[in-house]
Every structure is written in structure tokens, then in C-alpha cells.
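Narrative of activities, Objective 1.

The group set out to show that a structural description can be obtained from nothing but a protein's sequence at a throughput compatible with the screening campaign. Below is one input-output pair from the validation batch, recorded exactly as produced.
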Amino acid sequence: MLPLDSHAHIVPDIAPEQLVELNACVLAMTRSLDEFQAAANRTDPTTAWGVGCHPALAKAQRAFSAELLASLVPKTAIIGEVGLDGSSRVPMEKQREVFGQVLDVMAQATRLSSVHSYRAASEVLEELTAHQPLRGVILHWWLGNPVQTTQAVHLGCWFSVNPSSVRHAVGAHVPPDRILTETDHPYGDRYVPGSRPGLVSAVESSLARHYGGTSESIRIQVWRNLTRLVREVGCLNLLPSSIRAHLVPAA
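Output recorded for this entry:
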């Protein structure tokens, strides 16, 4: 069973053989609609490309179009990376306008959605609450407190954790049946020797120590979690072949 990296950044013109050599299944997030368009026609067997609009990138926020996003969503199983960032130079009012439009699109076309919430956990929860019901929301690099985590769980959210956020995630009592592993390469794994997309062994080991079991049992749990999430969202046919193949035994 290959490792699952549910949030990583990869240049859209990477050679196909380099992705195969990662020996991992990766959900690759883009940071702008333009970036996704450069990757939209790829057919990588172990890498799924998401369509995103990063809240910290002013150019991406200015260029965002809800109509264009809606036209691109049928090409992918993933909307990401999207969300809010309390440290961004983009005014929060503008970020919330864009994120609200993204959530409107998500309500019409349910997808796996990787949501950024750095220094904006409360604001993200407010937006998610205002747009209920939503399915498929994965809170990436979640730094919310235990009360906010409980609220997110009640909203149906999932959580992807990387080497830089795993201690906070377990401290905030993220349930093991809502956890996914990620690297957020090249950001969340910058202190991991030999860091690359798909290298989630450090996260698996940390989760095993906290929840009990082994790294192998955590990997099985993560794939079982993703299987439930994909079934909930209904996006199986939009995922690459190798990722789909991993979901069947996890069920």
C-alpha cells in the first residue's frame, strides 16, 4: 500500500516519470486557476491535481473568477488550495469574498476540498457554517484549538496533517478516523531530511505513537478514511487509476 500525501505542491510541468518515482499517491494542490489550467490535461496514475486559489497570493485572488472555477471543476476531484490566511497582504474582506464564491461552487459540485486556515481558524469556521451543508472539506495544516476542532468535526470536516503540524493536531484532539497524512511540500516538510512529495513516514510514526499501533496501521487507517470521504463526496471516477485502486482494499 503506497503512502498517501493529501496535500503537496508540485510544478505542473514536472515529467511524468518523476511523479511515478515518488512511489506515493499524491493530491497536488495548485495556487491559482492559471496554474491548474497548466496541469488540467495531465493523466498521471498516482497524482491527482486540484484547482485552487491561494489566499496569500494577491495575483491569484485578483484574477479569481467563480465562473472559470465552475468550468474547471468537472476536470478534477479536488478543489485546493483555497481558504483564508490571517497573515496575507490580501485584505480579509477580499479573501472572504473569494472563499465564499469558492464555497458556493463547492455546494453545487461536491469535491474533496483542501482548505487553508492559517491565523484564520475562526473566520474559516464562520464561512463553513454559513455555507452548510458542505461535504468533502479537509482542513489542511489545521491550527485550531480543541473547541474549534470539535466545531469543525461537527461541521463534517476532515484534517490533513504534516510534519510541522502533527503535534498540534493530536493536541487539539483530532479524531483518528478524520485524519489524512500530507507533506505540504515544500513548506510543511522543510525540516525533514530528503523531503519530497509523498514522504509522510514521519507523520505516520508520530500518529502511531499518539493513537497507538504501527506506522503500517496508520497508513491503512488513512486510506480507510479517504475511502469513506470519497464515497461521501462521490468523486471516485475523477481520481487517477492508482488512487482508485488503493481505495478498494481500504474499504
